[in-house]
Amino acid sequence: MTTTAKPYDISDLTDKDGEFRRKPSTFRNTISKDPNAIFTPEKLVHYIGIIAHPQLTGHRTLIVRSLKGLEDIIGLSVVNYIFGDKGWKFSTPEETPGCIPDTVNNAQYLSELCFKANPDYEGRNKGQNFYPKHLSSEIDKINDWIYNKINDDMNHIGPLFEALDDVEAILSENYFLVGNTFTETDIRLWTTIVR
């Protein structure tokens, strides 16, 4: 598989002032029964979850895959835990215990799959959202502040504790973060807090 992947440079993840600011993900598609959808349930035989154990999105992906009973439907590849100069590498279990190579496309690097999906790809890949549409606006709103105030602010104690106070206020009135429904938002928070 040929790619135009450039070597990884840490400056790709920082702004001009040198501060790390996570870039928006490029691939945000969902599986839908809509006949015009890019990904439909009928095509599930071709789907594979690709995760990196150090990533919170990978942790959430494994949890949702298990909770939904999708282990026999959606395969799994696990990239090397080291993000190298070409990005995430599909290592063999012999090279790196716990890794599962890409057996669908036989890619060596995740970036190869990104370029296969979009030849003009310039970003980084992240996991997909998995949430009920009727709660999507509320989930997005809470996910946004969990992402910005808890997931990314674990090293900024002041804002973190303010965000945790907000979580406590929500959970003092609800069993879950979005009303009485267990959603991706609960998984997003839990995977950060438990680590």
Automatic annotation (TrEMBL):
GO function terms (MF aspect): glutathione transferase activity
GO cellular component assignments: cytoplasm
Pfam families cross-referenced by the UniProt entry: GST_C_2
Signal peptide positions (record): none
InterPro entries: Glutathione-S-Trfase_C_sf, GST_Omega/GSH
Protein name, UniProt field: 10571_t:CDS:1
Annotated organism of origin: Dentiscutata erythropus
